Amino acid sequence: MKNLKLSYQITSKVELQREEEVLRFAALDIERNRLFFSSSANFVYTIHLSSLLQELLYVVDINDVLHGDVGSQFDNFLRGEDQKIYINVRERGAKIVGVLHGNDSAVILQAPRHNLECIYPRKLLLTSIVNALISKRFKDALLMVRQHRIDFNIIVDYCGWKAFLPSAAEFVKQVNNLSYITEFVCSIRNENIFDSLYKSYRSLLILEDSKDVANRELDGTNDLNKVTSVLLAVRKALEEEVAESLGRELCILTTLARSDPPALEKALKRIKMIREMELSSSDNAKRKHFPSVEESLKHLLWLSDSVAVFEAALERFMLHLNCMSRSRKGSTASISSTASTKARDMRRQRKKGKIRAGSPDEEIALVEHLKGMSVAAGAKRELKSLLTCLVMLAKEDIARKLQQVCESFQLSQMAAIKLAEDAMPSNTVDEHVYNVEHYIAKMTEEQCSDAFTWKLKVLV
């Protein structure tokens, strides 16, 4: 052979002394960037590495090195159109001095100025994340995804979203952070990122074991899409693995609002349950673990179309939540203030979500709405405290008028509920029997001491 040209298109050439010479690699001078070869003819050859002229960093899988033609697979390591197979090194002359394995997946470079730089090649990161997911180390995978701004869908798509469903409980248990889980829930989309965003990495990351899992059909998931199925599994895991708390309830509402289509009816039912706990006169310890109705509804409106929430509340005859959603709508950032949008909203209101007169649940909706207007236990305590302060300040007249007004309101509200409940079974309503004045007088005679514990006897 007349000369030696190093593999991978290194431009330096060595003129050999004899054709039958055999070269063996001897040493590498990192400081001067040179290779040394020993010859069978007792010569020593030195070559200056010129590969740094390209300033490219390639990440090659060990299996490609052992079993494949690496040079042809990576186009002999020359700059090409596909820029995803290499990384541009920022400083000319930088050298690789170390590699961090495991969850770090970093390459340490030494620049000519002798400073060290740490870079995170995308291929190494994705490989580490997939390896963590295959090993069921969901927390490590999620932390890497958040730190390096990788798409959250990789946690679900690495071996098919159906294979993720049985692991949802383990995922929630390991992560154990409701903020991270909420961020994950809001990022789920009905697409496979290995068919779009990370398509060029699919053959490198999808292992044979994960392919078998992805091809396996799971019962009960064929009729649901990816978003709905994954969020349903996460919601069940939250209810089973996480203790009741304000954050858990908001996270569950997020899974309902982000479903495809949004499960607004179920979300409103959960908010209605919170409303019923607020109206309960007894001090319920469970109530402390839930957000307020206003906070829950505000969270739902922030994640959903306010008009859709309004119509869903009307269709389910949740009048109190309906009124709150409309009042909250004005202060929600998702509502446009333009005249055209308002006109379109009004047209939608006229066409949808109306309560038809004579419908079976019309009376029930009315009674529920009246019950929602009742004085809550917290309001009674505050009212009694206010009356006590007025009496202590020698404002008995003002306190007496306030007590009379509040008593009149409470009697009217209780009389209206009793009237509606008595009139519901009747097909015909006698106006002389079923009238508010008659029921107010009746409720005055039958005043329940428990309902009026806030009153001060000195003002009677």
Automatic annotation (TrEMBL):
<feature type="compositionally biased region" description="Low complexity">
    <location>
        <begin position="332"/>
        <end position="341"/>
    </location>
</feature>
<feature type="compositionally biased region" description="Basic residues">
    <location>
        <begin position="345"/>
        <end position="355"/>
    </location>
</feature>
<protein>
    <submittedName>
        <fullName>General transcription factor</fullName>
    </submittedName>
</protein>
<feature type="region of interest" description="Disordered">
    <location>
        <begin position="332"/>
        <end position="358"/>
    </location>
</feature>
<dbReference type="InterPro" id="IPR006849">
    <property type="entry name" value="Elp1"/>
</dbReference>
<dbReference type="InterPro" id="IPR056169">
    <property type="entry name" value="HB_ELP1"/>
</dbReference>
<dbReference type="GO" id="GO:0000049">
    <property type="term" value="F:tRNA binding"/>
</dbReference>
<feature type="domain" description="ELP1 three-helical bundle">
    <location>
        <begin position="325"/>
        <end position="408"/>
    </location>
</feature>
<dbReference type="Pfam" id="PF23925">
    <property type="entry name" value="A-sol_ELP1"/>
</dbReference>
<dbReference type="GO" id="GO:0005829">
    <property type="term" value="C:cytosol"/>
</dbReference>
<dbReference type="GO" id="GO:0033588">
    <property type="term" value="C:elongator holoenzyme complex"/>
</dbReference>
<dbReference type="Pfam" id="PF23936">
    <property type="entry name" value="HB_ELP1"/>
</dbReference>
<dbReference type="GO" id="GO:0002926">
    <property type="term" value="P:tRNA wobble base 5-methoxycarbonylmethyl-2-thiouridinylation"/>
</dbReference>
<dbReference type="InterPro" id="IPR056167">
    <property type="entry name" value="A-sol_ELP1"/>
</dbReference>
<feature type="domain" description="ELP1 alpha-solenoid">
    <location>
        <begin position="122"/>
        <end position="324"/>
    </location>
</feature>
